[in-house]
Amino acid sequence: MTKMPDHTRPLRIGTRGSALALAQAHETRDRLMVAHGLAQDAFEIVVIKTTGDRIQDRSLKELGGKGLFTREIEDALLGREIDIAVHSMKDMPTIQPEGLVLDCFLPREDVRDAFVSPHVNAISELPQGAVVGSSSLRRRAQLLARRPDLQLVEFRGNVQTRLKKLDDGVAVATFLAMAGLTRLGLAHVAKSAIGPDEMLPAVAQGCIGVERRLDDADVARLLATINHTPSYLRIQAERAFLARLDGSCQTPIAGLAELDGDRLRLRGEILRPDGSEVIAGEREGLASDGAAIGTDLANELRGRAPADFFEQH
Ligand SMILES: NCc1[nH]cc(CCC(=O)O)c1CC(=O)O
């Protein structure tokens, strides 16, 4: 059993305050408790409000995309106000601030998107011209690629807020990550789960990551005991793919790595925001070469994209 970093005080776990973020922080704490035979009072959950939580009335695109939900938490980690930070890996920029590392991943949940609607069962059953709510560039583009007739409206806020908007008739359907719904005990609100062939998920969807300070050797040892290697390998490949592509956060990107023994298959796609063009590809190789597989696939898609593909829209 690993020694706790400091017996005089609990390990401080930094998280956002949404119900989903708290569920993820609790899952991390519970895994650490089990791995180290510790009681709940060996941990303290520290809630941190981020820019993304504060500003609800503007689109994420306007606010500047990734990093909005993480910056304040990373500042608290660097400032030693917390010892570890729990994140949805989907929301994490590909590069961490100097002094922080993100190399501990919990067993990944369902990677699929959920189709959520009070009355409609699946995308194919949406009436012509139906209004669909989503603020995700990727989901909007993927949907328009298949159904250019649909009308997209911005849909922000936590899961409960979005479900309320559906009840109020603001849109007839929306999309949420199955993982988030499952962690909130709300999987039943999904009318169907959309397979990756139909809608390739966001890079790292469904995966919880635990960040720490680079120089904190005690915490590094502690986290190593809960890192899930298959999830780690998949996330390495997907994030290498993303890192080579996300110079522009305006380009919708999807990516999913899957393991078969020691082999890894990575599928990826980039889209125009209006869905008028989709460039997709896949690579396979040794799971231990995930980062190279990700970079190679990204280079291939970049090479196949027209000159204006990554321009701002
Ligand atoms: N961008 C918000 C966000 N970040 C992570 C999740 C869900 C949980 C996950 O994918 O790990 C969600 C909500 C959603 O897309 O429905």
UniProtKB/TrEMBL annotation:
InterPro entries from the UniProt entry: HemC, Porphobilin_deaminase_cofac_BS, Porphobilin_deaminase_N, Porphobilinogen_deaminase_C, Porphobilinogen_deaminase_C_sf
Post-translational modification S-(dipyrrolylmethanemethyl)cysteine, affected residues: C249
Catalytic reaction list: 4 porphobilinogen + H2O = hydroxymethylbilane + 4 NH4(+)
GO CC annotations, alphabetized: cytoplasm
Further comment: The porphobilinogen subunits are added to the dipyrromethane group.
Function as written in the Swiss-Prot or TrEMBL entry: Tetrapolymerization of the monopyrrole PBG into the hydroxymethylbilane pre-uroporphyrinogen in several discrete steps.
Subunit structure as annotated in this protein's UniProt entry: Monomer.
Annotated family: Belongs to the HMBS family.
UniProt name for this protein: Porphobilinogen deaminase
